[in-house]
Fold this protein.
Amino acid sequence: MDGAHDMGGVAGFGPVVSEQDEPAFHAEWERRAFALTLAMARPGGWTLDMSRFARENRPASDYLAMSYYQIWLAGLEQLMIERDLVRRDEIAAGHALHPATPRPVLHAADVAAGLARGAPTERAAQAPARFKVGDRVRARMLSTPTHTRLPRYVRGHVGVIDRVHGCHVFADSSAAGTGEAPQWLYTVRFDARELWGADTTAGEVSVDAWDSYLDPVEAAGALR
Amino acid sequence: MSTSHHHDHHDHSELSETELRVRALETVLTEKGYVDPAALDILIETYETKVGPRNGARVVARAWADPAFKARLMDDATHAIAELGFTGRQGEHIVAVENTAQLHNMVVCTLCSCYPWPVLGLPPVWYKSAPYRSRAVKDPRGVLKDFGVTLPGDVQIRVWDSTAEIRYLVLPQRPAGTDGWSEERLAELVTRDSMIGTGLAKQPGGHA
């Protein structure tokens, strides 16, 4: 989705302002919104990619005006309402008004082990990688309407395969609910001038890109 | 947090609304049996008191002090970092990138807020903010200036945009004058920002 969340290279947001000795959370509601979001993934059954899409998939003006955890909260509400885990009248009333359905729950005793385990995304490869380190590739001109992780600022540009990370769950499919559909994942390194012209102060910029985001670029002379 | 939502209604109505909404949600979800409130408390306590940039500082200090560990870290950071007991959520696949006299690395997530939780904890607000996400990939020297850092002109800057589930940890340059220091002492020099690439390790004697 070519939304407001895709911010690389956008001008006009001003300087980066850091806070001395910043706490992990700035308000009690942020603590609870954070923890509710992590805990509800168990009964909700959604993937991390689905929750990313639920956060970014909103009007650009809202996305830019909301604080980080307000976006998390809005994403969580949307995911729960879509699955009828919670209804709007219950949020308004502040109490359960409709029967719950049996769902797995994240219990206190399982939290530490679950966090330590995480959710690795690497899967066994079903075929060899299409690209190797050093290959030249072009990021495809994709304008996927749903969740995607190919930022606008690299689309159409030529870079070099910098690392090969194995086969990983494909975010676009995982967010759409069409399965893990693992693909080879690469770090693709771009000369910053290829992306921005001469005025950039970066030397090189890389993104991590799944195989279907990329096209091969033949070496000069190899075409005929 | 307090009873402030009653009298703050006019001054901070937006915040109060959000606060009330979160309370309402937690009540509904608890009543429906979808969340265990004790699990929420543990999640919060974990990221407020246990998981943070001190973890990453221990990793960096060990890499500075122990060449064999550094070699393992550069080869397979996920497993090397697990030797110190730091694993899991948002750090399932970690890559360490090393700063040198010629190369400075900076990590960003332009699309959201991807960050290596097991070693750095939850990201600070600025890391998740539009100014950082928009500028890091185009004008990293300008971003460094916002942090009060100026690099020599001949240092190349490499920016890593975390667009998948690979998480990046910057291995900052070891400050001069720290020969023979213990890992504990070295770790005191390692700042959060030096492991993101918006800062440098502190110099012995206290200067960042």
Notes: Strands of chain B lie at 94-98, 103-108, 156-161, 167-171.
